[in-house]
Design a protein that fits this description.
The chain is built from 17 helices and 15 strands. By secondary structure, it is of the alpha/beta class.
Amino acid sequence: MKKKKVFVFFPDGVGLRNFAFTNFKAIGDNMGFDIHYWNNTVFSLKDNLGFKEVKIENHNIHLLTPIYSRVRKRIELNVSKEKFNDNVYTTYKFPLNYKDLKNIIKSIYISLLISLNSSEKGIERVRKKINKLERKKSKYLYCKSQLQEHKPDLVFCTTQRATQSISALLAAKDLGIPTVAFVYSWDNVPKAMQVVETDYYFVWSNLMKAQVLQYYPFIKEEQIFVTGTPQFEPHFNDSLKQSREDFFNEYNLDVSKKYICYSGDDETTSPLDQFYLEDLANAVRNLNTQGENLGIIYRKCPVDFTARYNEVIEANKDIIEVIDPIWKQVGKQWNQVLPSKEDFKMLYNICEHSEFVTNVCSSTVFDFVTHNKSCIYYNYEQPQLKKGIRDIGQNYKYVHFRSMPSDKAAVFCTNKNDLEGLVKQILEGKLSNIDEGKQWFEIVAGKTPKKASENIWESINSILTH
């Protein structure tokens, strides 16, 4: 029996972590699929990993596609605001740019398109316009030619949010090849991040399935498969675990200390993030004067290349140890910062050998809870906050945080003066969010986080055999 050929499509680098560096391919191989990576990134899967690869060399999307995509997103958010009578959708919008003539013209054009199409029918018109624009580009014909040559039975797109994927998926659909989009992140559906239209959608959980049906009425229930996400699978892979001594030796940590992980955020989400790190350092310093022996592991956000933490780190170098993610910057955009397989092992062991994690609203709460470790979320304003700087408090009002089973799914620090006491209580075992955090993890990531890759391949098989 001939193997079914599946194109695993990377329109950008964000899917590499889930679908190239996990056991995803090995599981698909064992299930009898002929897997080819349809690769639109600069990372060579053939050269680096030995995978069968079809490279997309034509990256030319239509000049108007990013503009219409932004129009689509803002209209969807406007419609959601009216439909659900909820102002949270306004906070998902990035402000238009009026700083120079070129951007003024672009912003006026975007505003005009929004005003002419601000309805569900308008969204449909804009989506059709984007598809029409992309079918005109040479990339559409280029991708169509590749599909005609290689004849895959299905195209699995590793993210639903990349404009680079539109023409390729249109070519597949026009050739009658089934298409699937994986919804990439836990906050993507309410934020109007669905750029592509495919035949099927793979989502993390029943929660995400309900959201897709809620926000996109043109998608039918039978088009959606609940699979989980490979994102968290490495945390259940015990072969990645190092002994405490080996891990501490590798990263020059003091084996006599207990370490708290500070997981950094990107500048958009938490523009004053460095001051929360400083607050933690001050709390640790005070606790050390009381007989504790604590340090901080600072792991930056992989797509943050600012120098904003440097002063705090230098002033507290006796306390803060920097362990950078093993990611590589290959371009100027955030989605051109690519992970490495080695980073799984590092993150696993940071979770395993830290006492707990602290951050601003990051999904690392789930990474750590798989290792039975707590998470402190900072939720207070910094005195450096001023007009034009985004307040982190709005993050916790976002729709994806409404999935929390209770306010104890994370330990919220709502006052800087409380931080030292919260740290001490967690260290002494008197405070934890582990039980509620695990409930939250199941709501967000589904009931079978260890089997997400297997679930995806079984779902692909179901599509191809029915």
